[in-house]
Amino acid sequence: MESMVLTPRLACLASLVPQNARLADVGTDHGKLPISLLLAGKITAAIGSDIREGPLAHAARNAAEHSVALSLRLAAGLDAVQPEECDTVSIAGMGGQTIAEILQAAPWCAQGRHLLLLQPMTMVYELRQWLWANGYEITRETVCREDRRRYVILSVRGGAEEKQLPLWQCAFSPALLQADGAQDYLRVLLTREQRALDGMERASELEASRIEAQRRLVMQMKQALEGLQ
């Protein structure tokens, strides 16, 4: 029998799922997140969605071995999930652009009736920019660490005012600045962005507007860090 012990990243995500939630887990893979939550009695129902048959078959075996009811759907994103079937949606382990595309294809997520737990692996700035532009509110950000890498999990709801912001203003949210571990996370980001700025300033062929946007991003991060100290 396969263990349902979660990695630190997924354990952090699981901790954000409300008690008695009805969960739709997108990209469920082997179903460990919903199965572990069902075993703990934290959720009342779960759907696992994935685009690959092999992982879904594995998830079905895991659910059967652990005697839990997990509804599995072979589909892209939320294409096979109806809004009334869940109140919480988790999307983890994907790039920010892919997460945005999944939400774009499921406009009911923007109505504000569902809690969205989003854990992007890449393109975090771009995901925040898309969320704000499409009327989503980032109510909370949670910083977690797995091995040597830090991740953020965005707790999001629709139904907010749309905000058009340049990408450099989307490097962090007000919610992130309230998170435990925000200072260390921003330090890592600032080191990376300062290195990028240094390289851009040495490359004379780059447009001045791109360099100026990077300067603004770095300055904004420095100011945010000063405010956290």
Structure description:
With 229 residues, the protein is of the alpha/beta class. It has helices spanning 8-15, 32-39, 53-65, 96-104, 124-133, 174-177, 182-202, 208-228; strands at 21-26, 43-50, 71-74, 88-95, 115-122, 137-146, 149-157. A seven-stranded mixed sheet has the order 3-2-1-4-5-7-6. Helix 4 packs parallel to helix 5 and helix 7 (182-202) runs antiparallel to helix 8. The termini are far apart. The model has no long low-confidence stretch (mean pLDDT 94).
Layout of secondary structure:
Blueprint: H1 8-15, E1 21-26, H2 32-39, E2 43-50, H3 53-65, E3 71-74, E4 88-95, H4 96-104, E5 115-122, H5 124-133, E6 137-146, E7 149-157, H6 174-177, H7 182-202, H8 208-228
Parallel strand pairs: 1-2, 1-4, 2-3, 4-5
Antiparallel strand pairs: 5-7, 6-7
